Amino acid sequence: MPVIKMWQIKRGLAKALERASDPQLTGGGLWISVNAAVIDPSNIAAIVQQFGETVQSVGVTRPRTNSVAAHHLIQSFDPAVPVPLEVVHRVGVQLAERVTGGEHEYVVATHVAASPVCNHIIFNPVSFESGRRFRVGRGTIGLIRTVSDELYEAEGLPVLSRRADGSSSGVAL
Question: Phi then psi for 49, rounded to 5 degrees?
Fold first, then answer.
């Protein structure tokens, strides 16, 4: 069962993208997917520029000082459960699509040289379709975990059962 962590990037978007897309961690850049309108997924400056252009051109609200520049999800996989890298990356891309509704630019970088194997998903807070911002509320991380578990289970992999309060029981199915 993947573990999900999430936070906001307010400054240093380029640095976060560089770290997530590090060729030493992503199999020479093989395990990187981008839906932003850029030619080269390894061109961090172009991705940052595309994120900024979306905010400026379609954003409903003007960016303020200390606005969220991106959201960063990390989806870590249990090293005790062998999962093919193709499946790990595919689940990460599907999670990015489901979380953003396909309306936000994102980068999915699968760290294969790390233990545990994990997906870094960095996405633009502004929708390129509606111009609206992705809002993180009290239950957002729980919903993302549920979607992640559904995708993991769809691949035939075990997930931990959840209690009524949303916490894990620690018993694998």
Answer: -65, -40
* Cα–Cα distance for residue pair 5/170, rounded to 1 Å: 18
- For residue range 106-151, what is the model confidence (pLDDT) as tens digits? 999 999 987 889 999 999 999 999 988 999 999 999 999 999 999 9
Lowest mean pLDDT among 15-24, 75-84, 161-170: 161-170
Structure tokens at 8: 């906001």
Closest by CA to 91, choosing from 79, 105, 103, 75, is 75
Domains of the chain: 3-135 (3.30.930.30)
Q: What is the CA radius of gyration of the chain?
A: 16
